[in-house]
Amino acid sequence: MTTSFAPLTVAIGDLVPHPANVRSNSPETYDPENIAHLKASIAILGLLQPLLVQKLDGKYAVLAGGRRHAALKELIADKTSKGFTAKTKLDCRLVPEECDVTTALSLAENITQAPMNAIDEFEAFARMMEVDGQTPETIAKIFGTTVAAVKGRLRYGLIHPDIRAAARGKVITLDTMKAFAEHPSQEAQREVFEALTKDGGYLQAYTVRQALKSRGVQVSDDIGAFVREEYEARGGAVAADLLEEHSVLEDAALVETILLEKLGAAAEEARIKLGFAWADAMVRYDYATMADYGRVYPGPIEPDEAAQKRIDEITAELEKLQLEMEDEGLEDGAYNALYERVDALEDEARDLQEAYSAEDLARAGVIASWGAGKVTLHVGLVRPEDIVKEEGARGSSANPTGEEAPDAGEISYPASLAEDLKTERAMALGAAMALHPEATLDLTLFKLVSDVLASGMSVTQAIKIDARKEYRNHAKMDEIDETSLEQVAAAHDLLDLTWLDDTRPPADQFAAFRALETGEKAKLVAYATASTTQSCFARDPRRDSLMHAFEIEIMPDIRAHWTPNAALFNRFKKAWLLKILGEDLGLAQEAVTLASSSKKEIVAFCDKLFAEPFATLTDAQRAAVAAWCPPMMQTAGVAFDEAEPTAETPEPDSEVAQAA
Fold first, then answer.
1. Which residues contact 36 (CB under 8 A, 6 or more apart)?
2. Mean pLDDT across the chain
3. Of 394, 210, 369, which Cα lies nearest the Cα of 289?
4. Tens of pLDDT along 237-283?
5. Which residues are in the ParB-like N-terminal domain (predicted)?
6. Which is nearest to 16 in space by CA: 47, 48, 55?
7. For residue 524, what is the enclosing H or E element?
8. Deepest of 153, 220, 383, 542, by most Cβ within 10 A of its Cβ?
9. How big is the CA angle at 161 (ends 155 and 165), to the nearest 5 degrees?
């Protein structure tokens, strides 16, 4: 039999809490900060849903609607709220005293009051703006939230309707849908959505974000902010977002062109000022590549009379400044100003007493790069070919080993390919780190405390503990092997992100984060640290022994996270492919047979070979295929020559060599 609840009106002052309300044992539910949005909504819209009450000791006890009751009492206490007093009457529904399902009724209503999901909120907010003429500011006031949170939800309106429909139909997750909001252009979103789903694959939020990064640069990114004025002056397209910081400079090529121009101008200015022979620019300074460069330093000189006079003036001023800095009553701003002045004076004095030799100036140069949100100048660099010329022992050869120049079949990776291989290696390392959270947590914490507490240089430059993702630049991002991306995406999907809610203040997010299990925190730290790894080839054990050993531990074989594919082989010369097949993989006969084939056919053969090694391979050949990668990409965990086939290597005048 259905129980009916009679309507009645009750004064707010006659309402009391009901002990059977399921939230009565959670008093924090009624804290003012937890019902602020409800209070704001009732103040403007009134009570939209009647309270369920039951007669109890001459009062009306609120069985369902305790939070609304608490918000009403807050409104009575708030003298700035109009129209709410203890005598104000409300619509209620009376539950008979003999009803024995009170707890069930309370539970049912509280469950049905579940918060709206992100799509629901977007649609509700959008309707309030379109139909009721509300603004983000008034919506924020009604719901007791921030304007930024409202705009954050409204940004979902920028997501292509097909993608929203896929999320509504649970074809993709809500987290994946949100990832498309990283780029405000619906056309870019649609293209990425279609590209990533064309083969029926499972869409991941991580891969969506990675794909969208290649479609432009956010204006809030340090590079975006640096080039924006010039970018817009040249007519570069900007995809506008409701939140300005999420707007995107869509022409990534133009962004990089302008950045390199600005870096080049800074390098040239420094070259002229210092008298160097050359200037160059690079977006990111690659320490592994630059390890082959030399460096010159200024030497001491005897200052002339004018220079000595200035040095004496600087010395006197420095003594005065040091005394001023000892004043414990100095404000921070004043102290920092004095500190900067001391730095400038010391630099000036050093320049007056040091200089580069004419010989060094004639061969050295300066490179400008982008890092930490600013232009960084690397001065006094000497190119490898100039180091060889200086040594003179091997004539004018540009080969630092003194050996003869390699023949046409020798594999010498061009700069663009080498850069892309470094990026792919860094992504594979990131996947390995995400899959080894405990070890990566130890590394992260060790670097953090060592860099702060230990003296001297940083324990490793391989990871950046500065709460920013490392910039990933790859010329052919759409063509790389996706193994490491999929592994990282899978690791991301296992993360507990319940604490990460952009509608909650940071303090609340931090409290929720602290409540996580230790293992969950380790996964989060490992995933974040993995995103900071720098792109480079195998670590030099002398320059970075820590990361050299750590990489061997977590990534003994890069092939667990990366597989060579057609996109890689297509960038190799035909002779290189035959050399790899015949010498590295022990497939001498196949190399001879393929020598008369087109490069396209050889690429297809290699791609198929690595995707699914042939059943006809010997154990040695199978092991070689399973282990092969460009040698500089592998860690020392699996020695490359250990995986080579036992078959004899053909002599230089063999059939394979001739075919190559």
1. 144
2. 79
3. 369
4. 998 887 777 888 988 889 999 999 999 999 999 999 999 999 999 98
5. 8-111
6. 55
7. helix 518-530
8. 153
9. 110
Residues facing 53 on adjacent strands? 62, 94
Q: Residue 409: is it exposed, middle or buried by C-beta count within 10 angstroms (0-12/13-18/19+)?
A: middle
Q: What token pair was written down for 500?
A: 């990460």
> In angstroms, how far is the first alpha carbon of the chain from the final one?
89
C-alpha–C-alpha distance, residues 100 and 635, integer Å: 70
Task: Say which residue, 396 or 322, is predicted with more confidence.
Answer: 322
Under the banding of pLDDT at 50, 70 and 90, the label for residue 542 is confident
Residue 330 and residue 239: Cα distance in Å, rounded? 47
User: For 266, phi and psi rounded to 5 degrees?
Assistant: -65, -40
Instruction: For residues 303 and 355, give the distance between their C-alpha atoms in angstroms, rounded to a whole number.
Output: 10
Q: What is the side-by-side strand order in the sheet with 364-371?
A: 278-282, 364-371, 374-382, 294-295
| Alpha-carbon gap, residue 72 to 75, rounded angstroms | 5
Strands 15-17 and 59-64: parallel
pLDDT at residue 42 above 60? Answer: yes
Query: CA 535 to CA 284: how far, in whole Å?
Result: 10
- What secondary structure does DSSP assign to 95-125, as a single string? PPTT-S-HHHHHHHHHHHTPPP-HHHHHHHH
Q: 107: which residues sit within 8 A by CB, 6+ positions away? A: 22
Contact predicate 12/84, CB 8 Å = yes
| DSSP code, position 469 | P
**% of the chain beyond a pLDDT of 70:** 80
Contact 526, 441 (CB under 8 A): yes
586, amino acid identity:
G
Q: Count Cβ neighbours within 10 Å for each residue of 205-232 and write b for 16 or more, e otherwise.
A: bbbbbbbbbebbbbbebbbbebbbebbe
Instruction: Identify the burial level of 91 via C-beta atoms within 10 angstroms of its C-beta, where 0-12 means exposed, 13-18 middle and 19 or more buried.
Output: middle
Cβ–Cβ < 8 Å for 247, 436: no
Within 220-251, residue ranges assigned H as helices are 222-233
Of 75-84, 94-103, 349-358, where does the model show the most confidence?
349-358
Structure tokens at 149: 């949170």
Instruction: Please count the other Cβ atoms lying within 10 Å of the Cβ belonging to residue 73.
Output: 18
